[in-house]
Automatic annotation (TrEMBL):
Its EC number is 1.1.1.22. The lineage of its organism: Archaea, Methanobacteriati, Methanobacteriota, Stenosarchaea group, Methanomicrobia. This is UDP-glucose 6-dehydrogenase. Residues 318-417 form the UDP-glucose/GDP-mannose dehydrogenase C-terminal domain. It holds the Pfam family UDPG_MGDP_dh. Keywords: NAD, Oxidoreductase. GO terms for molecular function: NAD binding; UDP-glucose 6-dehydrogenase activity. The active site is at 265 (nucleophile).
Amino acid sequence: MKVSIIGSGYVGSVSAACFAELGHEVICIDVDEEKVKMINAGKAPIWEEGLDGLLQKHSQKTLIATSDYEYAVANSDLSFICVGTPSGEDGGIDLSIVKAASASLGAAIGKKEGYHVVVVKSTVVPETTEKVVLPIVEEFSGKKAGRDFGVAMNPEFLREGKAVYDFMHPDKIVVGAIDERSGFAVAELYRGLDCTVTRTNPRTAEMIKYVNNSFLATKISFANEVGNICKQLGIDTYEVMDAVGTDFRIERRFLNCGAGFGGSCFPKDVRALIGKAKGMGYEPQLLDSVVAVNERQPLRMVELLQRKLGHINGKRIAVLGLAFKNDTDDIRESRSIPVIAELLRLEAIVTAYDPMAAGNMKRIFGNITYCSTSSEALSGADGCLVMTEWEEFGKLDREFEGMKEKIVIDGRHLLKPEKLTARIDYEGICW
Ligand SMILES: NC(=O)c1ccc[n+]([C@@H]2O[C@H](COP(=O)([O-])OP(=O)(O)OC[C@H]3O[C@@H](n4cnc5c(N)ncnc54)[C@H](O)[C@@H]3O)[C@@H](O)[C@H]2O)c1
Ligand SMILES: O=c1ccn([C@@H]2O[C@H](COP(=O)(O)OP(=O)(O)O[C@H]3O[C@H](CO)[C@@H](O)[C@H](O)[C@H]3O)[C@@H](O)[C@H]2O)c(=O)[nH]1
């Protein structure tokens, strides 16, 4: 089939490369000319395991990129909207990018002869596909949905760092369409992938995505709440969760307590669902608490450090990990951000290290020292905060010997102090 993908970020570029791998002809559309050039040169516009290889394989053969909507729509049967849906100022969803992309897509569909399918892949709150995207495409195309063009919602569940694998090995594919023809066309694109396919209406498909993310975020905040209580009682919360997680109704994964959840999805998606609920007059108390626990959790790292050091003012603090999780350079809503902000507010001297994400963090904090190794960040430090679950941090040992005061607060349950040669003053955030 012939597909165009609007937006070449994490979701768009991975979907494009994977659809090409599945044998489809793909045209990427992005307003960012740099990304267009990179994709046409067979280079990934973001860091994601396996993405470069797929783009090298398919670029200029069955995959090309352009900023020209008209060309892309004329030469494809379906267009996926994969643009960002950030939080607005009130925490609710900001649909301005989706609206702009829908208008450009509508104008291009207006100039095309024949049927075209509009597919929303961006994470959007229930009713957006039918009440926002569909009318904009109708307005700008002058055509009628369901008759001249189809509309579907197909949420994406990939994880950053494992995006290509997740796309090719999904546990479910959800297709919500306004008509049978477009629903069938979208489902056909995934033919060959072995998983459950849920065919439904657009608003249910939209809700499935939010419930998926909100439930996982709730598990993490629950684990953090339990962890904070366990710590006061001197109970190992990881031992508790290992046992509780054997219950198949609960499941062990996503019950790791720590510095909280970050990333481009969980925080903003929980806030968006809260915003949607409140907009309808419903107060979602549980989801409000999920956010509140997650906001407080990273600051516990600084509180624990402060308790050990007495005061933080003028102390040198090594922050290990800037990405929101391991295996990505993405720092969006990383728990390191509120921690560094708090350290700076308390007038600490911050030295930071991350294997991949320092370049991105420099755009937020220009006034801290970025180091090229953990050793360099730790050298002469009074305290250390482990913020991201990078594998290499779990292997640190003698590097701690370079610290002045060997105080280490672990926010990701990575270190085993009893097994280290270095004598460190270790404390887990909730163990
Ligand atoms: N990142 C993830 O892991 C993930 C996973 C599942 C779902 N999602 C959802 O997918 C959507 C996209 O997320 P992302 O992380 O890929 O975003 P992103 O910010 O990485 O990428 C968006 C891309 O859209 C481009 N763009 C902006 N305006 C445009 C326009 N008018 N026309 C064409 N291109 C335009 C940008 O230049 C950018 O390349 C969001 O709704 C997000 O919630 C993200
Ligand atoms: O037990 C856990 C598991 C995760 N995290 C944190 O949770 C965040 C998110 O982790 P993860 O889900 O692995 O990353 P994302 O790439 O943000 O993926 C989530 O968000 C995507 C965007 O919607 C969805 O597509 C994915 O299914 C969903 O897992 C990270 O900060 C992790 O450190 C914890 O604190 N404890």
